[in-house]
Model the fold of this input.
Amino acid sequence: MKTHERIAENGYPFWIYTPDGYDGTKAQPIVVFLHGRSLCGRNLNQVLRYGTLDAIKKGMNMPAFVIAPQNPGEAWKPSKLMDIIEWMEANYKVDANRIYVLGMSLGGYGTMDFAGTYPDKIAAAMALSRSRQFLPVRISNSKILGVIPCASGSKYCRYASGRSGLT
Done:
């Protein structure tokens, strides 16, 4: 794993994990991991405490670039995350159709903000967050399955066609 200081003025410092066997000939996907408030600060090593990079350190095989920026202690800024992705595209052979963003807690909010700001840039997003505030979410996963409406506070999602969805 490598560290990178800010690549843009006022940007986030970040870790990069390069997949085993990467030689620059085959495009690889990117997984962006956004941490929660407990890892905010100015010590990039804190980002290694939990999440995707911690799982890789413990032996998980990740056939993708993993980007783990550090937030200094504010809401995640989608434009700063895009700066990192564009830097990756300019410096590594990246599969631009397979960019994934996931986050925990504050990072979950950042994931949703990024996905809403750049919906055509990412293949998928996963936000793991618990809050007293609920946000109605409408998820579309394909033209075949249709839209999955999820009501605020509901324990169930139903496919638009009426089939049972997630619980």
